[in-house]
Fold:
Amino acid sequence: MSARRKARKRALDFLYEADIRGARALDLLNTRPAEELSQADYVKELLTGVEEHHIKIDELITTYAQGWDMDRMPAIDRNILRIALFEVLWLVDLDDQIAVSEAVEIATELSTDDSAKYINGVLGRIVILKPSFAL
Structure:
C-alpha cells in the first residue's frame, strides 16, 4: 500500500471519528502522538483542506450525489467523497484520475461494492464539470 493511500485512510479515520463525535478532525489529530501517525504531513494536509473547503465540498456532494441527502449518506462514503473532492479540486500536483481511483479503491475495501460504484459516478461527474466551478 502506498504512503499516500495510508495517509488517505488515516485521514478518513479522523473524519469518520469527527462525524460520529461531532468534533473537528484536526482537533482529534492533535490529540494523537506524532509517532502514532504515518504520513502525518499528508494526513494534516488532507484534514486541513477538507475543513477549509468544507462548505463548497459539502455543497458539491449535495448537488451531485443524486438521490442521497448528506444526512442519509453513510458517514464512510461521505468522508471518502470529501477527501477525494479536496484532492481533485484543490491539489494541483495530483492527477484527478488518481484521486478518483484511490477513493474508489478505499470504498471497495471499507464500504460496499455499491458505494464504490456510486462514489465513482459522483466523482466522475464532478471531474467533468470541474472547469466550470468557481473555486
Remarks:
- The radius of gyration is 14 Å.
